[in-house]
């Protein structure tokens, strides 16, 4: 057995199950599950049709690089969305969802052959794949806290000696769980550190198409281009799961530095990570269609307006820049007790923020918050808002 497996931490949802194991919600209340960020909106028909119409592709081995038409569809989307010219031949790779790609990318980038463990810097709170991938690649995770009011990483907390060992930095914008979006000045600050220390940046942008207002979130490659930088040592990760409500399709792509793409393709060829042809054709249909994305955004906007508007009577809460999460500050400061009591009395399940973060010398930035995923129906979100208000009125 790989001894590095022993370093892995339980997933947040496993820890949540343990916290809720002996708690029974009222039997007369409908349970509302808002703890997992799994999209629940209907999968667009255009994607379903494309999948069904290409089932003959199941009889063929797919290439790890994907078909030209899919890479071109991804390139076209990047042009429309970010005004970028991305070479579909050398700067784009289809992947089986951003999750597997984020994990695999760390195995490619990290070099653990030296005397010191290589460092990977992760935002805190964070998506647990960043941590697990680093540990299994023989690296050391250093957490950078993302605190209120802007929830941007506090890069100043990382000392020079750590930066000098850093090989990879993860960023997540729009952020999970806060929904905060990195602005151009934020990217400029990170790029300045990259110039000084030479690390790779992996930008997780899977929530980029769920946003509120007229301004779409800035992307990493877009920010680099606006700052007249090359894409050396910069890779973005995106997915159809949230954008197109197809978490079961397992489809996304990575784009950026052509040298890293070449190495990543070689790794993926050995790893057996090729995307099936029916999935590729369904993905083409998804990336080419924007109507369903606008409808998806409108539905989330409706839920956030309703939910946040109701909660403002009793909680300190606002609509985030993007994503489908409400990062709710807990009035009594104890996120675990809040979540347990909410489940016990109101049958609404949310995720304690500390389960998404790690303790650091600067504290645990998730403590005192709960993450609420507004992925359920409008009616269920409205019901959850009513229950949270009742919870507040009864003194938690």
Automatic annotation (TrEMBL):
Keywords: Aminotransferase, Transferase. GO terms for molecular function: succinyldiaminopimelate transaminase activity. It holds the Pfam family Aminotran_1_2. Signal peptide: none annotated. Gene3D superfamilies: Aspartate Aminotransferase, domain 1, Type I PLP-dependent aspartate aminotransferase-like (Major domain). The keyword Transferase applies. Its cofactor is pyridoxal 5'-phosphate. Residues 31-388 form the Aminotransferase class I/classII large domain. This is Putative 8-amino-7-oxononanoate synthase. It comes from Vitreoscilla massiliensis. The lineage of its organism: Bacteria, Pseudomonadati, Pseudomonadota, Betaproteobacteria, Neisseriales. The gene is dapC.
């Amino acid at each position: 057995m790989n001894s590095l497996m022993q370093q892995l931490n339980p997933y947040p949802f496993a820890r949540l199950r343990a916290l809720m194991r002996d708690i029974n919600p009222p039997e007369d209340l409908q349970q509302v599950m808002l703890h997992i960020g799994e999209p629940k909106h209907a999968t667009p028909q255009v994607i379903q049709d494309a999948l069904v119409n290409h089932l003959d592709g199941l009889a063929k081995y797919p290439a790890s690089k994907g078909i030209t038409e899919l890479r071109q569809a991804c390139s076209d989307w990047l042009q429309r969305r970010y005004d970028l010219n991305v070479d579909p031949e050398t700067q784009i790779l289809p992947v089986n969802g951003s999750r597997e790609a984020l994990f695999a990318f760390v195995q490619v980038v990290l070099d653990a052959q030296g005397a010191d463990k290589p460092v990977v810097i992760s935002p805190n709170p964070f998506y647990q794949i960043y941590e697990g991938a680093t540990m299994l690649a023989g690296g050391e995770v250093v957490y950078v806290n993302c605190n209120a009011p802007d929830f941007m990483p506090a890069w100043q907390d990382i000392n020079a000696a750590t930066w000098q060992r850093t090989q990879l930095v993860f960023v997540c914008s729009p952020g999970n769980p806060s929904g905060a979006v990195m602005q151009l000045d934020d990217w400029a600050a990170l790029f300045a550190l990259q110039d000084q220390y030479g690390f790779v940046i992996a930008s997780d942008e899977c929530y980029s198409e769920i946003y509120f207002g007229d301004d779409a979130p800035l992307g990493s490659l877009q920010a680099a281009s606006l700052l007249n930088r090359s894409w050396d040592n910069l890779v973005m990760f995106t997915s159809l799961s949230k954008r197109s409500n197809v978490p079961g399709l397992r489809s996304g792509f990575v784009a950026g530095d052509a040298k890293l793409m070449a190495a990543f393709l070689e790794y993926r060829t050995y790893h057996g990570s090729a995307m099936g042809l029916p999935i590729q054709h369904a993905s083409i249909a998804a990336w080419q269609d924007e109507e369903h994305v606008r409808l998806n955004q409108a539905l989330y906007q409706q839920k956030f307006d309703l939910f946040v508007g109701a909660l403002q009577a009793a909680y300190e809460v606002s609509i985030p820049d993007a994503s489908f999460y409400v990062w709710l500050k807990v009035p009594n400061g104890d996120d675990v007790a809040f979540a347990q009591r909410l489940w016990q009395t109101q049958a609404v399940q949310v995720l304690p923020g500390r389960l998404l973060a790690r303790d650091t010398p600067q504290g645990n930035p998730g403590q005192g918050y709960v993450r609420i995923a507004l992925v359920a129906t409008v009616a269920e979100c409205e019901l959850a808002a009513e229950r949270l208000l009742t919870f507040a009125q009864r003194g938690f």
